[in-house]
Amino acid sequence: MALKLDELRTPRIDFGKGIELSFDLEEYTDEPAKQKAAKELRETPEIVLASIKELRELICAEKELLVPIDKDAFLKRFLRPKKYYADSTFEMMKAYYKLKQKEDSILSGLSTELLADVFTDRLVQILPKRDQHGRRIMYMEMGGKWNCSKISSVKLIRATNMLMEAIGREPRTQLHGVVFIVNFDNLSFSHIGQFSPKFVKTIVDYGQRNSPYRVKGIHIVNNARMFNFLFKVFKPFLGKKWSQRIFLHAADKQSLHQHIDPASLPSFLGGNYELPEYDGSVVGQLLDCYKDKSEESSKYGYTVQEK
């Protein structure tokens, strides 16, 4: 397993047998993507120009919010999940940075050094292949493979957010979205105890309303009776949209495959390709190749502490 540079010097993880993971930061220019963007996101040249102009004006009026209003790519990252409606984009942006400002936020401490053990244990992964709709696939271990006495739920969520920050810079991911597969095999009361109602509300509110990502599905696998106790904590905070996008598959891989093509999945999820055991620290190395972007992003936000 190695981190390599391709002919364009783009860093990528080479898993062998042609399976690789890299970040695609280029704007999409192919017609199918542009047509989908126009249909689903209202992304036409006229609307994009008008929405960026309106969002810039709203941000300028929010004197204490520091973000790079001169960078179209940054503004599009927030506009796309809100279908280029500047008002709702601005409300989401404010909520996002207010959450980031809070002490012990799930959006703080996003560094490979602080989260190295999460990546090394491969508790959160970006699967190398996108699904049949072009969506990124995030895979999480939230059962027996998660040693919650060593790694807290806060660190687990922070590591997830660090990976989401990375793929969130990809225009194609901004367009197609993300799906989650979460493995709850051998879930215990120790794991469940990591999730207080207050913490769960923070996670769910962020995911549903205040994050600049298009989460298109959350697929729960290996959920046994113990999972029901945890789901009871989450359920009161779920809105209609997310409730409709959560799918419980238990151990039925065929059920999962009705939503995600096996060609997009590794063999341990019943898929068609082999993803070898690997040293998860290589993911940290890949993220560190974009450390300048992460450090720049960490400077954005409110300049005055909210009272």
Topology (SSEs and partners):
Elements: E1 2-5, E2 11-16, E3 19-22, H1 31-41, H2 45-61, E4 65-66, H3 72-79, H4 86-101, H5 116-120, E5 124-126, E6 136-141, H6 153-167, H7 171-176, E7 178-183, H8 189-192, H9 197-210, E8 215-221, H10 225-234, H11 240-244, E9 246-250, H12 253-257, H13 281-288, H14 291-298, E10 301-302
Parallel strand pairs: 6-7, 7-8, 8-9
Antiparallel strand pairs: 1-2, 2-3, 4-10, 5-6
Helix pairs in contact: 2-3, 2-4
Domain CRAL-TRIO: 115-277
Organism: Anopheles darlingi (Mosquito)
Protein name: Cellular retinaldehyde-binding protein
Question: What can you see in these coordinates?
Answer:
It is a single chain. The protein is α/β, with parallel strands linked by helices and 307 residues long. It folds into 2 domains: 31-101; 115-287, CRAL-TRIO lipid binding domain (Phosphatidylinositol Transfer Protein Sec14p). It has helices spanning 31-41, 45-61, 72-79, 86-101, 116-120, 153-167, 171-176, 189-192, 197-210, 225-234, 240-244, 253-257, 281-288, 291-298, and strands at residues 2-5, 11-16, 19-22, 65-66, 124-126, 136-141, 178-183, 215-221, 246-250, 301-302. The strands form 3 sheets. The chain has a 5-stranded mixed sheet with strand order 5-6-7-8-9. It has a 3-stranded antiparallel sheet with strand order 1-2-3, with helices on one face. Strand 2 and strand 3 form a beta hairpin. Helix 2 (45-61) packs across helix 3 and helix 2 (45-61) packs across helix 4. It is globular. The N and C termini lie far apart (48 Å). The mean pLDDT is 94. Residues 115-277 form the CRAL-TRIO domain. It comes from Anopheles darlingi. This is Cellular retinaldehyde-binding protein.
